[in-house]
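Q: Fold this one first, please.
A: Sequence and structure below.
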Amino acid sequence: MNTTLTLPQVMPRLQRGITLIELMIVVVIVSILAVVAYPGYQEFAARAKRNEARSALLQIATNQERFYLDNRTFTTDLTTMGLGANAATYRTPSGAYDIVINNADAASWDATATFLLGGSEAGKCLTFTINGAGARGSGPDGNCWERSR
């Protein structure tokens, strides 16, 4: 008695795949995770852009003091401040802020970072300012220099 299994008897167990219902469940789970995670990611990216602007302004403040010690005056030249090749305007690496030193003389200076992009971030921290006395400002929200924002 020769008992051999034929191919159709063995294959049905091995050809199992995912069903449409299983695929739909995975799609729904991934969609829910994306809906929950995306706003947090957007806020994280916005904070990173603000940190870029604050960091550049603080670098300007430090370098203005160094420049003053050597020259007994402040400067509006951003290349001497270590920012970019353009003497008048520096754009942050993300492209979100343009920074300029508005005026500088032997007594004082002030610098402004202006937000360039739109979206939900546009209503929060449009500008950051700092001056030679160390006074910091931001608009329209006056608390943009805080870390948590």
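Q: Good. Now the second chain.
A: Here it is, same layout.
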Amino acid sequence: MPVEPIPTPSATPVGPYSPAIRAGDWIICSGQIGIDPSTGQLIEDVDSQSRQAFANVTAVLADCGCGWEHVAKVTLFVGGNSQGSMPMINEHYTQVLGEHRPARSTVGVEWLPLGALFEIEVWAHAPA
């Protein structure tokens, strides 16, 4: 099965990676942090970062011809001492996903790119 990068004009990568790839029927999206695409800068607080990261994933999925309804797996990375922000992060999650409930993992991490406090990655099932 070939693994091919997908053009993602909405993404702002912060390293040498593809924001999204196709592997057979799967779209695998790299983690998105709360970078404002209009400025290329990380937003300050965890509330705004998580809201922006969800918007960034929405844009990358659209670049790939998908939506949240195609998402089968979500991984949330919560950095620093932001674990107390989970109720607010879950609120953003519910606003974006509605009733859709993919599998999910949440991982507390010490460090994220650019000093971010929140990152999200998704796997979407989207047959070609």
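Q: Anything worth noting on the second one?
A: The helical segments are 46-63, 86-97.
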